[in-house]
Amino acid sequence: MPTTLPKRSHPEVDAAQHDLMRLLGYLSASDREQVLHACAFGDAAHIHDKRKSGEPYITHPIAVAEILASFRMDVQTLVAAILHDTVEDTAVTEADIKAQFGADVAQIVNGVTKLKSSNEKHINKANTFYKIITATLEDPRVLIVKLADRLHNMSTIDAVPEKKQRSTAQETLDFYVPFARIMGLNDLADYIEILCYRSLNAAMYHKLSDKLLQHGLGRAFQRESIHNYLNIVLNRLNVKGYVKDVDNRVTLFRQFFKNRGEINDLLWRHEFMLVMDEIDHCDRVARYLTEKYQIPAHQIEDHIRHPQAGGNQSLTLTYHTEQNTIKIKILTKTMLKTTRLGILMGEEASYLSRSVIQASLRNLQNLIHEHAVDDTMPNEAVAVVDKLIDYLHERKIICYTPKGDAYELPRGSTALDFAFAVSSSLAMHATGASINGHKAKLGTVLKTGQTVQLDTDANAEPKAEWLGFVATNKARRVLFEWLKGLTAEQRQTQGQAAFARALTNQGLDITKLDDSAWQKLLSWRGLVDKTALFEELTTGKLLPQIAVSWLLTPEQLAENQAHAHADHQPQSLISDAPGMEATLSSCCHPIYGDPIVGHLSKNGLVVHRHKCFSIDEIRKINDYQVIPLHWRQASETDALNQRVYFDAALRIHQRLTDEQVSEVIFLVREVNAGFESIEHRAGYSLLFVVVQSREQLAQLILRLRTYLGYPNIQRLYQWNDEVAAMA
């Protein structure tokens, strides 16, 4: 690098350029000249632009390039970072950039350029998100430039109004952070996430920050002690590697903001990495620590053989000492690099890591393909992006073929869903499966990390009842298409066979159903004959399990059936069960917005939270009795969800004073929830409320925590026994 750099338009621009060039020693001389050329080009383009803070605008894109230089990104990415706002904010065109810097740079700049095709901000935002996702699928460098841009903007956001700060932070947490994580770009995601919390709730952010500062010396002493002990372990076991302290602030802030721990407990949580030369050494250290601290199986996570989303690999152990909670990630140097760079590692990453990231990419591509946006209908982008964001936040499982190929599926997926994810043509001839080497039915619900091998028969065909236990849209879509292609007679035969098998599972015989039973079913569905009923079973309008459960419904439930869909009934908000009687389980008290499943009991459809303990027991007996359910999405103009109420209970981990009780009642009413009662226990208080949604309850919890000084507040799911579990 020359001792003197070309002078730009302003001393601050000169300083920014100098800081950037100091980091570019890894580039060739010609590449560094290209970066300088980009600085000059960008400086001229933005010559009249200022940031909200008053600095020359070009200092921002140069700072973005500086962030990327710390990741040793290639020259095209750095140049694109310097020019990323030129097309959006200046007279420069994409063609100008292509002519000066090449097609790759122009493509990256185009990918991060915001769309302003509408006067409505939410439509422009949706279109921009859609564009970023599609561009990232073409070139991952688009995403890392956008993340570096967002990181710098979030770190300098104080100059914009607080309302704008909060909306930007929420947008970032909703879209950019989860997108970064499934692509494996965790370093950037961590920094951005912490900054989001600062903007969302400064008081809460500073509360934890102050506590971390107050206990800084004590935490440092504890960390040093644990660090030294881990070095002793490595020497004792004669393995090659080193101990790396992990800045776990992002985990602490996330848990604190999401109300998942008392502040004093969070302070004494420490995280370390043991970076080894070989996987065998990882296993040896893990065995030693497991035996030493008697770590139970549920606190051991083998993500080396079964990587997490984003391709992250490690053996993770969590154990407790007298004061501290210690998390140790044991991994190789390559795995550490993959944890930082994810998709940008390319062929350098392990096959398993690449396979997991590719599984996420396939799902994104499928969503994009299924919901292609028509440029003439900008509102379409809003709905598509909503689906994409739902996917980013959806809790997923990752399962594998015997060859080690990863497939990402939503929770609640079955072996049949896995079959359709691998190959629709394969799934259409599936007859069974082996899960981790054990024979299983196609309707068996999968768990993350399992290996699934499918049994097929070239002469086998799909069955209508498969619709009752698939959870993925792809599986349903393919099944619907196949059933639609059958003749009317074939569909009726399929429906009859499905109904007969469902009856058999309940100890009934289709040939022994009397006329009154048939009439009961036909009247319920408003049909004239059996063939119409069988037809419904092959169109997805009716599941055979549900039809059978209707026959087993007690007489009094049948008498009340006319009231099943009154607007004040919670089941009217369930989209998967039109025309059905449904009740909310009293064992887990689901509310609107909770992830839910349905249990096909003899009393009809019972709605449970997806993590309800009783559902696990039911699945052990018969997986086919449990089906995924979804709440109907109510629009702002739809008043239905405003007329439906759900009981909820909160455990507040401090005993409330009379003055606090009065204020709590006021806060409950302020968020438009209903107050029921408060009960005091030794060291804590129970608050019983009535809410309209999970979102409203979360809002109430946030208000309560802010007012009460940020105690831990837990939602109770079994308040008779006061058994709490976090959402």
- The order of strands across the largest sheet is 1-2-5-4-3
Q: Strand fraction band?
A: 5-15%
Question: What's the N-to-C terminus distance?
Answer: 54 Å
Number of strands: 19
Radius of gyration: 29 Å
What is the CATH domain class of the largest domain?
Mainly Alpha
Using the 3D structure, state the CATH architecture of the largest domain.
Answer: Orthogonal Bundle
Oligomeric category:
single chain
Number of domains: 5
Number of helical elements: 30
Per CATH, what is the topology of the largest domain?
Hypothetical protein af1432
Low-confidence stretches: 553-568, 723-727
List keywords for this structure.
disordered C terminus, alpha+beta, 5-stranded mixed sheet, Beta Polymerase, domain 2, 5-stranded antiparallel sheet, 727 residues, Ubiquitin-like (UB roll), Hypothetical protein af1432, 49% helix
Description of the structure:
The chain is of the alpha+beta class. The protein folds into 5 domains: 11-206, Orthogonal Bundle (Hypothetical protein af1432); 209-349, Beta Polymerase, domain 2; 402-468 and 477-485, Ubiquitin-like (UB roll) (Roll), CATH 3.10.20.30; 491-629, no CATH class; 645-724, ACT domain (Alpha-Beta Plaits). Residues 553-568 and 723-727 have low confidence and may be disordered. The protein contains 30 helices and 19 strands. The two termini are 54 Å apart. The strands form 5 sheets. The protein has a 5-stranded mixed β-sheet. Strands 16-17-15-18-19 form a 5-stranded antiparallel β-sheet. 49% of the residues lie in helices and 14% in strands. A hairpin with a 2-residue loop joins strand 16 (674-681) and strand 17. Helix 23 (488-505) packs across helix 26.
